[in-house]
Amino acid sequence: MPPLPLFTTLILDLGDVLLTWSSDTVGKIPPHIFKGIFSSQTWMDYERGRLSERDCYSRLAAEFDVPETAIASTFQRARESLCINKELAILVQELKAADTNLQVYALSNISIPDYIFVQRLAFEWSTFDAVFPSGLIGERKPDKAVYDRLILGTGIDPRTAVFVDDKVDNVAAARTLGMYGVVFDIPDRVATALRSLFSGPLQRGYRFLRAHAGSFESVADDGRTFVENFSQLLILELSRDE
After folding, report:
1. pLDDT tens-digit readout, 223-242
2. 218 Cβ contact list (under 8 Å, min separation 6)
3. What string of DSSP letters covers 130-162?
């Protein structure tokens, strides 16, 4: 029997996961162009911190034949529409409160200007043990290098980490490193999954075993306690953890 799973790390994306924004802000840019911008090499370089905001908008204007002022105003309105996913924020804080050993990190494809802006939003950023924005790292998801930077920078074991992202490709990349991947699609379903992974009966039982390791005693029907080997060996066999 494999060791009992115990997830001790939660890694969250920011955009479209912890942060939501209004698509009504697209404005003068046609939706198909707006979508194309996000998949362009220019935007990816911007998210890697290789371009300034002004250079990014200038290149996008030339590539998509859209006025630079329209691009700038559209992204400014989109930025200003950002708000915190309060339900998810509350859930993460509850999970941390229930397990003081839980580590929570953010790994996001986000430009430096956007990252500076979101830090002003009404959110308890200390909820995260650390934030890894692509604009500062110089790499972006789903490239393996960005995950390696997080693992190296935190010292986590990927096998104990749950990774949440709205992009299937990003989740798939995390899974190749041994993480448990959750695609953020239906918020209620994701919330149920996270509660099960971090505070389900199995996880609570395992944490109890860890907290009382080396001090288990058997109790008779009359309340007397005594030391014996059978239960200790049974726990060892099932958990494979001395």
Report:
1. 777 666 666 666 666 666 66
2. 225, 226, 227, 228, 231
3. EEEEHHHHS--TTSHHHHHHHHHHH---GGGEE
Rounded to whole angstroms, what are the CA distances from 6 to 27, 67, 99, 169, 223? 46, 52, 12, 25, 31
Please tell me the distance from the alpha carbon of residue 191 to that of residue 163, in angstroms, as a whole number. Answer: 13
Neighbours of 179 (CB within 10 A): 24
Average pLDDT over residues 16-35: 83
Half-sphere exposure of 53 (CA within 13 A, CB side): 14
Instruction: Give me the chain's average pLDDT, please.
Output: 88
The model's pLDDT over 158-204, given as tens digits with 9 standing for 90+, comes to: 999 999 999 999 999 999 999 999 999 999 999 999 999 998 666 66
**Is the pLDDT assigned to residue 4 strictly greater than 50?**
no
Partnered with residue 166 across adjacent β-strands are: none
**Torsion sign across C-alpha atoms 217, 220, 226, 228:** negative
State the Cα angle at 191 between 129 and 156, rounded to 5°: 30
Q: What are 81's two structure tokens? A: 């529409």
Nearest to 105 by CA among 11, 205, 36, 28: 11
